[in-house]
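Per your request, structure below.
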């Protein structure tokens, strides 16, 4: 952890406030550091150089800590603007989610009972809004999005083939349940693979948070579906 110390003079008394901020490798500092600096400086009435807040940034293992000024700390913030890996992940995950909804839409009339119908309803309720959020993000960040039927998306991990979807549409009752669970487990595993990859190659904080959510939520659902099979 890094310790932020800021000082101000109030009636000749030196007042100190401290904030704990997250530490990143190679002295990279998070946005919370800047917020802390702003809050700290807000109560300062002096204009002397000695009153300016500073940040003690821990060094790498075996290296000494470094003291940074406000400007230096701001420049040390990592660049989290979306890179090609982030844009590709979000674009592909929109299509990936869309195919999941194609499958869940069949459950109400095709499944044998409430267990599979309930599972499908939960997946639909979670991934439908996520599609809207990701499409809005792509629009803001200059990306593009397609549909689950685009040719380029067929090779994504876990995507069902056209033949598999056709067979699912024809299935009823227990046979539908079996096919649905098999396809959705593979689909979720593919999403976890995609999310793991973007955590390695992407750099956008928001995309990283989404990827971590996908890993946690869909891994839990995989375990539940395996127990149902």
């Amino acid at each position: 952890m890094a310790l932020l110390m800021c000082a101000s003079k109030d009636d000749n008394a030196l007042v100190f406030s401290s904030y704990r901020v997250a530490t990143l490798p190679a002295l990279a500092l998070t946005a919370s550091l800047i917020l802390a600096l702003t809050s700290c400086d807000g109560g300062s009435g002096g204009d002397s150089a000695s009153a300016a807040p500073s940040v003690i940034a821990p060094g790498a293992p075996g290296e000494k800590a470094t003291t940074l000024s406000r400007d230096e700390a701001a420049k040390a913030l990592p660049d989290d603007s979306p890179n090609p890996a982030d844009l590709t992940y979000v674009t592909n995950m929109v299509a990936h989610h869309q195919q999941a909804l194609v499958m869940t839409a069949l459950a109400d009339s095709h499944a044998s009972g409430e267990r599979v119908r309930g599972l499908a309803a939960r997946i639909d309720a979670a991934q439908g809004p996520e599609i809207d959020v990701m499409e809005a993000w792509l629009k803001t960040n200059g990306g593009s999005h397609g549909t689950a039927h685009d040719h380029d998306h067929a090779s994504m991990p876990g995507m069902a083939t056209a033949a598999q979807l056709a067979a699912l549409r024809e299935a009823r009752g227990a046979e539908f349940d079996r096919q649905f669970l098999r396809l959705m487990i593979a689909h979720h595993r593919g999403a976890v693979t995609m999310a793991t990859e973007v955590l390695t190659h992407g750099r956008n904080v928001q995309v990283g948070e989404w990827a971590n959510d996908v890993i946690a939520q869909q891994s839990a659902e995989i375990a539940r579906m395996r127990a149902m099979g």
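Confidence is low (pLDDT under 50) at residues 1-39, 147-151.

Regards,
D.
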